[in-house]
Specification:
60 residues, mainly alpha
Length: 60
């Protein structure tokens, strides 16, 4: 009987741990995505675009 009471009492704590670990996993994925997005944003100077336009004009 005592074992049954113990398992009922500890059940919500186990659910809380799973909930916290799911939140931690979500935050970890969001952080990884945020860092990846920072690396993918590339800014080119205007001269790069001008060079591309000059190449295209020269091919006409």
């Amino acid at each position: 009987m005592l074992e049954r009471i113990h398992s009922v009492i500890s059940a919500p704590a186990s659910g809380d741990k799973k909930s916290i670990s799911k939140k931690q996993a979500l935050l970890r994925r969001q952080n990884i995505n945020k860092r990846n997005m920072e690396h993918t944003s590339i800014q080119l100077p205007q001269e790069a675009f001008n060079s591309i336009l000059d190449i295209n004009i020269g091919n006409d």
